[in-house]
Amino acid sequence: MFSPEGPTLRELAVQALSSVEHGYDLLAPKFDHTPFRTPDTILDAVPSALGPLGPFDDGLDLCCGTGAGLAVLAEVCRGSVTGIDISAGMLEVARQRAGELSGGSRVTLVRGDARALPFAGSAPAFDLVVSFGAFGHFLPGELPGLFAQVHSVLRPGGRFAFPVVAPARPGTPAYWALLGFDAVMRVRNAVWRPPFVMYYRAFRLADVRRELTHAGFDVETRALPEFGRGPDGSPRCRMVVATRTPAGRQPVSS
Cα–Cα distance between 113 and 63 in angstroms, integer? Predict the structure, then answer.
């Protein structure tokens, strides 16, 4: 699961005993060599799914990390590309990546908390907000505020899009691995401060759809066909597309 360039077990332990911000500062130089980074196969599938929903001018990568998703925005947005993350270390790696990116001159990186976006006090600034693999860092009770922040920075009709992988089937090795990881993190956070919030099984699609609708979005999901379907016929990977509704219209979920 880890390449030779990835972190050692000791480095992971030190990170896990830190705060989320400081932990990712420590992990940043080796983060792209861990299984925690969103796979390229998912990143590569998103632009073709977003294409028919555009055109988009200005885009935001929420919790951009090392900037792997910036290339997605650069491909589908014809205006500015902005990444925001709480970790200065992750942003430093993202800055290096942006410098190598075609259209990198359009990229602006901002250090900030997704729960209190620094763009929220001005006129809505974005047509598209994306996020990749970051939602495990937010407790279920934080989702209403997080989604309200995203809603506030999107122009009317703007989209909030992110991929969601189908949960592991009960009894499979992946199911037990994720269950064990979350259990270990809950014990760690019960006995150690500061907390390190990262739970793989806390971001449930039904809850997400409900909270997005409450925040003022029309919500739909689109299968990413590149990943096929599971034994029950459901998509292995979907893209959630939440559209900021025009003022005065009631949001719907489909």
Answer: 8
